[in-house]
Specification:
Distance between the termini: 52 Å
Helix content: 25-40%
Shape: globular
Low-confidence stretches: none
CATH architecture of one domain: 2-Layer Sandwich
Strand order of the largest sheet: 2-3-1-4
Strand content: 25-35%
Mean pLDDT: 82
Number of strands: 4
CATH class of one domain: Alpha Beta
Largest sheet: 4 strands, antiparallel
CATH topology of one domain: Alpha-Beta Plaits
């Protein structure tokens, strides 16, 4: 079976793919980024525990940790987890969250 392509599609097929990709991304998911300071995260081992605690939660999109600055930057899906719930998970694991700020 032959599919008849329009004149525009045969001249600019890559543009169609690009536009399709852009439109699929429009109105995408809402994300919030939270920055936290965790004083107990003083070494790579504690960084691993913090990472595992955060990644065990539903709604985590991205995570960046730095044990030297004791900083955690996490991007969440707010329809699946709140900043308060994430903070509580860290508190339950025995960590102190000294500051939490975000774009929520």
């Amino acid at each position: 079976m032959r599919v008849k392509l329009s004149r525009l599609q045969t001249r600019f097929p890559a543009r169609y793919l690009l536009l399709l990709t852009l439109f699929m991304g429009c109105g995408g998911e809402k994300l919030d980024t939270i920055t936290m300071n965790i004083s107990e995260m003083r070494c790579p081992e504690y960084q691993t525990i913090v990472q595992e605690t955060i990644m065990a939660q539903t709604g985590i999109k991205e995570l960046s940790l730095n044990w030297e600055t004791r900083t955690v930057i996490v991007t969440i899906r707010p329809d699946q987890i709140s900043a308060d719930a994430l903070t509580q998970a860290l508190l339950d694991a025995g960590f102190t969250v000294n500051g939490s700020e975000g774009d929520a």
